[in-house]
Structures
1.
Amino acid sequence: MGVDFPLAGAEKHEGTGQSSGITDQEKELSTNAFQAFTVHSAVEEMDGLDDVENSMLYYNQAVILYHLRQYTEAISVGEKLYQFIEPFEEKFAQAVCFLLVDLYILTYQAEKALHLLAVLEKMISQGNNNKNGKNETGNNNNKDGSNHKAESGALIEAAKSKIHQYKVRAYIQMKSLKACKREIKSVMNTAGNSAPSLFLKSNFEYLRGNYRKAVKLLNSSNIAEHPGFMKTGECLRCMFWNNLGCIHFAMSKHNLGIFYFKKALQENDNVCAQLSAGSTDPGKKFSGRPMCTLLTNKRYELLYNCGIQLLHIGRPLAAFECLIEAVQVYHANPRLWLRLAECCIAANKGTSEQETKGLPSKKGIVQSIVGQGYHRKIVLASQSIQNTVYNDGQSSAIPVASMEFAAICLRNALLLLPEEQQDPKQENGAKNSNQLGGNTESSESSETCRCSILACSAYVALALGDNLMALNHADKLLQQPKLSGSLKFLGHLYAAEALISLDRISDAITHLNPENVTDVSLGISSNEQDQGSDKGENEAMESSGKRAPQCYPSSVSSARTVMLFNLGSAYCLRSEYEKARKCLHQWLMPPSTLGGVGDQPGHMVKPHLY
C-alpha cells in the first residue's frame, strides 16, 4: 500500500488548477457556465475554425471541462483546436498547447505531453526569430518598440520556464529520472529558487529516495512569495504539509506522516472558510470568484492520504472513516475500494499484536488437562476465529467495517480495473474525472492492483465461508502473469484451504507442496529498481529509503514451514498419520533451514500434539 496522491509543486496554466473533489453547488455553477458555451457548439461540428471568435469559444469550453474534471472531453475539444492552430494568434496558440499539455499529464499521457512541449519550444523559437527580424528592419530607436521588445522577451522566458517545469512533471511521471535530472537544472536556472521549482526538485529527490534532501528543499521554499490561491487556485501551505506527509510515509514514519496530513487538512479548511466568507447569500456563494478557486478544496485527497497512514499505524476503523468519505467523490478509483476492503479485513482480523507480526504466542494452545496418570488427556483450545459470525443481521451494503462490506468493495475494485491495457484517451470521461489526483491506471499498475484485489477477495470469501468463490479468486490469482512471490504463496494457501473445505484434499495437497514456494518478495517494479541509476559515483542512496513492510513469512524457509504445517494437517484429514508425522518432523528437526519450533506460530504445535 502507498500514498497515491503525488507530491505537488508545479504552476498551472492560466485559468486552470489541479483536479480535486468539488461540491454539488460548485459543480452546478460550472455546469451552467459550460452549458452557456455549448448552446451553439459541439465537437463533432468543428469542421473549420476560420473565425477566431469560434476558436475562443471552444477554448473556453475546454477550460470549463477541465474544471469539471471531464478530461477526456476537454482533450477532444483541445485536440480539435490543435488541428487548426496555424492561423491562430501566437499567444492563443500557446494557451491551447499548454492546456493540452496539462490535460495529457493529468491523464498519464506523458509521451504526448512531451511531444507537444517540443512543438511549443519550436513555436516560441520561431516567433522570437520573426520578431527579431521585424525589429531589425524597423526603427530601433523607437522607445515604445524597445519596451515592447523587453515585455516580449520576458514573456518568452516565462513560457520557456513553464515548458521546463512541465517536462520535469512528465519525466517524473515516466520515472525517467536521468532526463528529469537534466530538466531540473534548467528549471532552477530559469525559475530560480521559486516555490514551484523547489517543490519539483523535492519531488525528484523523493523519487530517488533522498528523503532528507526532499524535506530540506521543501523547508527552503518561500511560500510567502506565492501569488495565493485566489490567483492560482492552489494553497501552497496545504501542499507543503501534504508533501511532508508523503515523504515521512515513504520513510515509514507514519505517526509523523499523519501529523503533517492533519496540518494540511487544517490549512485546507482555513482556505475554504476564507472563500465562503466573502458572500452571505448562499445562492451567490461562488459569484465573483476566479474559476480556478472552485478546485482549491483538496479535502478528499488529504482524507485519502490520512486513511492510508492510519491503516499503516494499525488504526483501521479511523482509516475506514477517512476513506469512506473520500470514496463519495472518487468512487471510480479501484485502489480506494481496495484500501477500504483492507480496512475491513484489518478491523475484523481479531489477532493479537504478536500474531500480526507473524509470531503469535503459544499461550492458550492447551485449554485444560483432564484425568490422571495413564488416562491423562490434553484438551486443545478451539480456534474461535474460524467460528466468527461477521454478519449481525444488518445489510452488507451499509458502509461499516465488516467482511461483507469488504466483499462489496473488492467487487467494485475488480469491475473498475480495465480487462486489458487501454489508451487513456479512449476511457470514459466520468472514470477519469473521478480518479484520485487525476490518476489513470497504467497497465503495469493495473496488474499489480488486480493481484492484490484477488488475494484479498480470496481471503474475504474464506472468512465468509464461500469456499467456491474463494477457490475461484485463488485460481485467478495464480494465473496472473505478474505475480509477486508473496502473493503466489498466499494464492496456494487460500486455494488449498478452500479445497479442503470442499473435501477435495488430494487437490489441496498439490497446492501445499513446499517446492511451490521459491520467493516471498512483495515485488518491486523495475522503475523503482532503476531509481538510483542516475546517481554519480560518489552519490549514494540514503539508508532511509523505502522499506519493505514487515510481513509473515519473512523468508522462503518460513513460508515452506507454513506449507509443511498445512500439508501435515491435510494428511491428518486423510488419516495418513505417518506422512503427517514426516511433514512435522521436517520443520521441527532442522532449524537452520526451516526454522525451529521456537520461531513458529503457536497453532503449529497443535498437529504435533495431535
2.
Amino acid sequence: MKEFNTLTRGEMQIMSILWDNGRGMTTHEIIDAYPEPRPAYSTIATFMKILTHKKYVTSYKRDGGGKTYVFSPLVTRAEYTRQAMKEVKKSFFGGSLHSLISFFVKEENISDEELEEILSLIDKGTEKRDNSRTADL
C-alpha cells in the first residue's frame, strides 16, 4: 500500500468483519455479520465501492456468474495497524517513537505487569538487533 488512506469508523467495521471472517463475503453476508440494528444494503454497497476504490478490498463474481460479488481484503489487519501507527507517530509525535511511548507511559495507567511485558519486548528486540549485527560481521 503506497499511499495510506485512513479508514472511517464505518469502513473499519466492515474491514473487521472481513478480517474476522477469513474469507471473501458478499454484501448480504457482511450485513448478516453486523450487530443489530443492521445497516441497509445500499449503505454497505456504498462502503464496498469506497473500500474498493481505496484498494482495501477486491471484488469478483461468485462462481456461476450472476450479479453477486464477493469482497476480499487486500490488506491484512496487521498491515493496516502498522501503517496506522506509523501515521499516528508521524502526525502527532513528529515521527518520534520516544515521544509516542512517553505519551502512553504518562497518560495511561500502566500496571507493573504490563510494564514488565513491555520491557521484556524491548529486551527481546535489543537481543534480536544485536544478534543480526553480530551475524553481519
